[in-house]
């Protein structure tokens, strides 16, 4: 295919010679400027977080990592940062996924997990408009009880267990997740309900003697949730 000789209208630097199109590097940089700027802004935002503000080293992987232009932009726009570019950076993500598949020792929670609970109203802590009367006691409903914090490193064989006492004929265990750093209520914007477990309690034993266990288990890249009745051993699972 013959390419017609033509100058770039914007810069005049790109020309076609014979069957090859020669493009000045400054023109090529404009193609990638927006996605690279987006990544730089993301790194800056992450470093503003309390648990990342002392991070000064960035590991570059995937195809862009080998680009001198990308590396120069990062060093210029994030002063004091150190870059690590592994050999075969373009394959690093794929290799890392394979290593994780064979040796998934530690995972990091990307969001915060918890359950909805009702707590006793405390006039020193809670505004009066949130209190509701429940079984002759003033309570605050739908509080976010944290099980696992976002970005918390968790060994894959770890179980987080919480115990609940039955207060009614039926117990509802509602599991939520959120990206919020400090969730207070499960009704907040961004809180997503994953599942509701319904546990039927027995009339033959006092409710105060009926305990329910909620297990959060981390295996590979999955979150497994188990609800167990201590009295009977009955279990329900997600997934």
Automatic annotation (TrEMBL):
Xref: InterPro entries: ATPase_NBD
Protein name: Uncharacterized protein
Organism: Dreissena polymorpha (Zebra mussel)
Upper taxonomic lineage: Eukaryota, Metazoa, Spiralia, Lophotrochozoa, Mollusca
């Amino acid at each position: 295919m013959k390419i017609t000789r033509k100058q770039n209208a914007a810069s005049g630097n790109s020309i076609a010679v014979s069957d090859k199109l020669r493009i000045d590097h400054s023109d090529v940089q404009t193609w990638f400027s927006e996605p690279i700027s987006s990544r730089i802004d993301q790194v800056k935002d992450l470093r503003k977080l309390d648990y990342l503000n002392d991070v000064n080293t960035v590991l570059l992987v995937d195809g862009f990592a080998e680009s001198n232009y990308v590396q120069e932009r990062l060093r210029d726009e994030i002063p004091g940062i150190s870059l690590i570019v592994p050999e075969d950076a373009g394959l690093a993500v794929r290799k890392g996924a394979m290593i994780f598949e064979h040796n998934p020792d530690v995972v990091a929670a990307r969001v915060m997990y918890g359950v909805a609970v009702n707590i006793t109203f405390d006039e020193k802590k809670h505004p009066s408009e949130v209190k509701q009367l429940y079984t002759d006691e003033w309570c605050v409903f739908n509080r976010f009880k944290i099980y696992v914090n976002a970005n918390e490193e968790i060994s894959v064989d770890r179980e987080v267990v919480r115990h609940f006492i039955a207060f009614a004929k039926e117990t509802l265990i509602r599991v939520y997740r959120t990206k919020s750093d400090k969730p207070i209520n499960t009704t907040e914007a961004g809180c997503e309900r994953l599942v509701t477990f319904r546990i039927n309690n027995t009339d033959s034993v006092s409710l105060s003697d009926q305990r329910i266990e909620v297990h959060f288990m981390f295996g590979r890249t999955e979150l497994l949730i188990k609800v167990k009745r201590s009295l009977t051993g009955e279990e329900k699972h997600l997934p």
